[in-house]
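Severity: low
Component: inverse-folding endpoint
Summary: output formatting inconsistent between runs
Steps to reproduce: submit the following structure tokens with default settings.
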């Protein structure tokens, strides 16, 4: 039985890597935001507008606990999921948690291209986008860092890089059975 939770900031590759890894490993892939939208019959944006952030986070926590009972699944969490309630403790207790670590410059490049698909970023200038990334990372990395594993997810730009990243993630998670490579250093952005 496998239960793998991917955490990290938006644009870190949770859906891209999670879907590819799940396919390769023969596991089901679930994006938590998509799951919430399917169960609630509303978009995440609509839920935020109707319930406010605290109301949305309550729904998110309930849905996390629901999918946290599934077996043989890779779950891509929302960027804020680990930062509320006991969500990180819960995920660590019921499965393997992986922090997809990506430096701010790479996040900026990815999010700038996808701004139109992300309502919270759509109207931001380049400087505002970078400020938003740095500010959010300062608040969220302490939560993301509670994951059992830290994985450099900067190389996800094409099929070859995604395939190589899937292999590296598989090696990292396979080593869990031998209790090695827990919280390995993640080189990136000049390290």
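Observed output (run 2 of 3):
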């Amino acid at each position: 039985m496998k239960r793998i939770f991917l955490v990290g900031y938006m644009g870190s590759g949770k859906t891209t890597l999670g879907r590819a890894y799940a396919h390769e490993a023969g596991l089901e892939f679930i994006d938590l935001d998509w799951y919430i939208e399917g169960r609630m019959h509303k978009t995440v944006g609509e839920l935020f507008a109707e319930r406010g952030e605290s109301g949305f986070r309550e729904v998110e926590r309930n849905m996390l606990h629901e999918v946290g009972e599934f077996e043989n699944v890779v779950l891509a969490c929302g960027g804020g999921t680990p930062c509320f309630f006991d969500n990180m403790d819960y995920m660590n207790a019921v499965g393997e948690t992986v922090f997809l670590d990506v430096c701010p410059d790479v996040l900026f490049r990815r999010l700038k291209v996808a701004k139109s698909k992300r309502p919270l970023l759509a109207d931001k200038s380049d400087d505002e986008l970078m400020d938003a990334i740095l500010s959010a990372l300062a608040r969220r990395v302490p939560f993301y860092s509670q994951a059992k594993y830290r994985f450099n997810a900067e190389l996800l730009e094409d099929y070859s890089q995604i395939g190589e990243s899937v292999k590296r993630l598989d090696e990292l998670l396979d080593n869990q059975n031998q209790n090695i490579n827990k919280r390995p250093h993640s080189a990136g952005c000049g390290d």
